[in-house]
Design goal:
Distance between the termini: 53 Å
Order of helices and strands: HHHHHHHHHHHHHHH
Radius of gyration: 27 Å
Shape: elongated
Number of helices: 15
Oligomer: single chain
Structural class: mainly alpha
Length: about 325
């Protein structure tokens, strides 16, 4: 069984390497053809493959991710994962993400199978299953950090737009100026909004797409304020100044709440990690004592109940200490 797993992992990695080499060769061939056209003045006759115009929208590679995309579409996860990758600022496609999950699963399963004793090798699927979610956890972490950084820059950008409008600039011109004065990720999102509007998309639709790409409550307030001002009129600069003030006050209140609830969060982390650390130490010091929880049916029921109760307790503590502002 472990030999089969290792052989499958080697074959899968070799197939990915061959695909990467072939695709790179094709890309170099296409680049050489374009270069030859430019140097020859465009006198060469393009064939049917060259006659196809490139698309502006990046699509998934159906040659390598057909099965993966089919499964994701069947379970309605395609849009959600694409949205996560876009909000994380990663230029990955879905096939690459799922291939990374499969690679982590196979690698950890092979290591756990060889490291565990014979009667416990059937449990190697549990650490492998946990490791399979590491790429998705990395994407979620990048997404959280990017949205948090955007939220920190957002009040200052609102004040910048208000000052620009008081100086006589239009609202769309203020959006264009933001990406030259601020850093990523705020600059990139505003630049994309301005370019979408500049290419013909109505301002309302461009702002709604901004609110969808950046799912923050403050951004929704900003979009709603701008759209309401366009329909009813009013002083938009003053509205943006007040909105920036409200956001900064929410930041102060959130910081106070995090300081007050820090003890509860530390307690939840400690109570969750202590059983795991103690179990790992017992398995290392006296494996025969812990083997009961894996080999005996009663021990398996006890361990499963303990894991479920531990997860419920951690979820309850997180629910108590997480206060939305």
């Amino acid at each position: 069984m472990p030999g089969f797993i290792i052989m499958a992992a080697v074959v899968w990695i070799a197939a990915l390497g061959i695909w990467w080499a072939v695709s790179r060769a094709f890309r170099h061939a296409d680049a050489d053809k374009i270069k030859s056209r430019l140097t020859s003045g465009g006198r060469t006759r393009p064939d049917k493959a060259e006659a196809k115009q490139p698309t502006l929208i990046r699509s998934e590679n159906l040659a390598t991710g057909r099965i993966v995309l089919g499964l994701l579409t069947r379970y309605r996860l395609t849009d959600r994962l694409r949205e996560m990758l876009e909000q994380a600022g990663l230029q990955w496609n879905l096939a690459r993400l799922i291939h990374g999950c499969l690679a982590m699963f196979l690698a950890v399963f092979a290591v756990a199978w060889m490291a565990l004793p014979g009667e416990l090798r059937s449990f190697a699927v549990f650490p492998a299953g946990a490791a399979a979610f590491l790429p998705i956890a990395y994407v979620a972490r990048r997404r959280t950090r990017r949205l948090r950084k955007f939220e920190e820059q957002f009040p200052e950008s609102l004040e910048f737009v208000a000052r620009s409008m008081r100086a006589g600039h239009a609202f769309t011109v203020s959006l264009e100026m933001i990406h030259r004065e601020f850093q990523e990720p705020l600059a990139g999102e505003y630049r994309r909004t301005f370019e979408e509007h500049n290419l013909g998309l109505p301002l309302e639709m461009a702002l709604l797409k901004l609110a969808k790409r950046v799912p923050l409550l403050d951004v929704h307030f900003f979009v709603s304020a701008v759209l309401l001002q366009k329909r009813t009129g009013g002083n938009l600069a003053e509205i943006l100044d007040k909105l920036a003030y409200v956001i900064r006050e929410r930041f102060k209140l959130r910081g106070k709440i995090r300081a007050i609830s820090a003890h509860g969060r530390m307690t939840g982390g400690a109570l969750t990690s202590i059983p795991i650390v103690v179990g790992a130490m017992l398995f290392w010091v006296n494996p025969d004592y812990v083997r009961f929880f894996f080999t005996d049916s009663t021990g398996q029921i006890m361990m499963g109940a303990a894991i479920v109760l531990q997860m419920i307790g951690y979820a309850v503590i997180r629910k108590i200490v997480s206060i939305e502002v």
